[in-house]
């Protein structure tokens, strides 16, 4: 194999609760997967076909800090369950979808809402609002052997001690096995792929100096300072 003509980029990783590192290949994010959040974003909460967008693997960040990004004055928090895959394939049956999961974590889908809104109005992609540097704060992953497959439990986010978002994993419109199976019909999923599983209602803006505390029962907690 020829030598690289530039230094090879490092593979982005997420720490695991047992001290290991989970290498990330792709990041799939589902939109409007909680009915109340769909309503607050101005959409019908009925079960419509799922849709996904992507972040970049190196957008995921476990530093505990979120640098307020440039060119925005309206940056929103979205607390989510992260699903980490140990294997994949195409056309994965619903009944075996969970066999491909390595573990779960708590993450945030930080969004430059003003830039996303402009993109929506013009019919353009969302990456400028979603896939910017360190836009995916994430906590340590915990394995299926440790936490099982959480299908219910409180998911919440507090900002400076005040509850902003609160819901239950059982309120997800599209469940984890359904997301895996659906994605595999359109993409070849592989080990290292992660899915950000959607956010409950209550998304709102943060400012520099805010502290965001996220929790998912049975999965973990995550504390992030906006800097």
User: From the helix content, strand content and strand pairing, which structural class follows?
Assistant: alpha+beta
- What's the structural domain tally? 1
**Largest sheet, order of strands side by side?**
4-3-15-8-9-12
**What does the main sheet amount to?**
6 strands, mixed
CATH homologous superfamily label = Fumarylacetoacetase-like, C-terminal domain
**What low-confidence regions span 5 or more consecutive residues with pLDDT below 50?**
none
Mean pLDDT across all amino acids? 95
The radius of gyration is 17 Å
- Give the CA-CA distance, first to last residue: 43 Å
Q: How many distinct beta strands? A: 17
**CATH class categorisation:** Alpha Beta
Measured as a percent range, the helix fraction is 10-25%
From the spread of the alpha carbons, the general shape counts as: globular
DSSP strand (E) fraction?
25-35%
The CATH architecture: Alpha-Beta Complex
Order of helices and strands: EEEHEEEEEEEHHEEHEEHEEE
- Return the CATH topology: Fumarylacetoacetate hydrolase, domain 2
Given the structure, what is the number of helices?
A: 5
